[in-house]
Amino acid sequence: MGGVLDYLAWRGDLTLDRVPFCPVDALVLSALSYVHFGSLIPGEPEPAVPLGETARRYLALPPGQRGRCRCDSDLDLLRALSASPRFASLGLSCYVSRFVPEEETQFAALAVWLGTGPAFLAFRGTDATLVGWKEDFNMSFMDLVPAQLAAAVYIRDFAGSFPGPLLLGGHSKGGNLAVAGASLCPMKVRDRVRTICSFDGPGFTDYILARPGYQELITRIRTFVPQSSVVGLLLGHEEPHTVIESNQEGLFQHDLYSWQIAGGDFIRLEEVTAGSRMMDRALKDWLAGLTNAQRETVADTLYDLLSSGDARMVREALEPKNLAAALRTALDVPPRDLLTLASSLARLAGAVLRSMQR
Asked: Cβ atoms within 10 A of the Cβ of 4, count?
């Protein structure tokens, strides 16, 4: 039993022609999408560059010259992939990374060529930027956010240059983008989608759930959540989910490196924890009590306050100087908006208390 890195140590020498691609492999490649590769991966389908060589080139760059990655575990992942016969020879291409604060858009994806078989399209989840988190909040009141539309265009364009079957996947928001993007594609593209893996990805608005594309793809969507999932149960889901054991607690189980694997598969559990069900009820009750206009006001007001200083990353928003800037900005926020924010947070606290009492 172990995590993703243990899986690579145990199974990394078995090539895909010996042991077929599986959901754990999809999680590995979804994690890869978090690395900011920049020009190391071409933006066009051809020529693809080998994954192992690309990982070594990234790691050889001085830290100040390489693109961001989320954590040290991502660097360990690259080291393991560079030495893995199962992954090192796979081709990477079609790398795109768009970050447009003015449009509240954070989107990134890459294509992995799985030998002579299908291609896997990996979508990056929410990064640590305030813009990335704001776009997540926007999902609660907008039919479609820009990243979902970008995912649909990405899948459609790749399908135009690649004739084979398609596998899609992503962790966190990346899982949402994989499902939503495929749902928005034309039928001739959807017909080529073999499987979509969403790893603790948030759900969807009624607009997506009611689309023929989503309904058509339900049997091909494989949703995985950790035992104390919060993110992966948000908003609406009609597809079933698989519960995975994690060695972390609470919200920290969203970390994909905490998910437990034995042999070639996840360690599966019967259901999520009571705490996960409690938070799911509370958040759904809270959102149900807010109109779309109120949700938008809450998200916009909170984002304006947190980004009023020099903060661009979520962790920076909690620095004293940026908290002070948020307090100064609050003086200029319309009282009605502040009241909506305060009352909605009070509603959230009430929803949590009611859920705990059930």
From this structure: 21
